[in-house]
Specification:
Elements: E1 2-15, E2 19-26, E3 30-36, H1 44-51, E4 58-64, E5 71-79, H2 90-106, H3 114-129, H4 137-145, H5 156-160, H6 171-182, H7 193-210, H8 220-226
Parallel strand pairs: 3-5
Antiparallel strand pairs: 1-2, 1-4, 2-3, 4-5
Helix pairs in contact: 2-8, 4-6
Length: 230
């Protein structure tokens, strides 16, 4: 059955000499794997098709949907929201790489969840559009993602109890986390690099405590390097 839906690409793996298997979180059906043929051939047409399946690309899809089928196929795909800056600015692309790795680990068997999809959509569009003061974006994103994963954290106090802290916990740190959870992305909260590293340590520890096989985040090194001047 042909179905139309929006989707957000979470990455792909190579499959045979010319094909890929792409993980896409769709608004209508949640997270599924799609086999896409002929996109790794050496041609301009294949290169254009391959560009559609880069991480966090927002797509309009027509899919052959069949419930409980492992690999699905795409009848047609096109860009829903062309990114203006996200793939091209080093800081933004580093954040995107990091968040893609987090999402691939956090969303393993996610069913249809329109609120989660809308959150991801709104977040990626904001990151693409914003021109300055987005250094805290990845921290806010990870904190705002937590309720969608069903962890039940609603305050910083519960958050800091989960792991022996490597940094001092005080009223300022708890106030900051509570604010980051509640503020809009556009409500910039000034932080230096040390504070961001501190909060990121706690957040990743929280995710490891709640997600099986979460493990080490490889792109974290790149993220630290790109913000090291802070």
């Amino acid at each position: 059955m042909l179905e139309k839906t929006q989707g957000i690409v979470l990455g792909f793996t190579r499959y045979s000499e010319t094909s890929i298997i792409c993980r896409i979180f769709t608004k209508k059906f949640g997270l599924n794997s799609y086999i896409i043929n002929g996109v790794r051939q050496k041609s301009k047409t294949s290169a254009r098709k391959m560009a559609l399946y880069q991480p966090l690309t927002i797509l309009d899809l027509v899919i052959y949907y069949k419930e409980n089928k492992g690999l699905l196929r795409i009848s047609d795909s096109s860009i829903d929201h062309p990114f203006r800056s996200l793939p091209f600015e080093p800081k933004k692309s580093s954040i995107a790489l990091f968040l893609t790795e987090i999402l691939r680990k956090a969303l393993q068997e996610e069913g249809a969840n329109e609120e989660l999809f809308n959150f991801l959509l709104k977040s990626m569009i904001f990151l693409d559009d914003v021109e300055s003061e987005y250094e805290n974006f990845h921290i806010q994103f990870l904190l705002k993602l937590i309720p969608f994963l069903g962890f039940g954290m609603d305050s910083a106090e519960a958050f800091f109890e989960l792991e022996p802290p490597q940094f001092e916990v005080n009223k300022m740190t708890t106030d900051y986390v509570n604010a980051l959870m509640k503020l809009e992305y556009s409500d910039y909260l000034p932080m230096n690099g040390k504070m961001r590293r501190m909060f990121l340590y706690w957040i990743l520890a929280f995710y490891r405590n709640h997600l099986e096989d979460f493990g080490y985040i490889r792109s974290l090194t790149v993220l630290k390097e790109i913000f090291e001047e802070d």
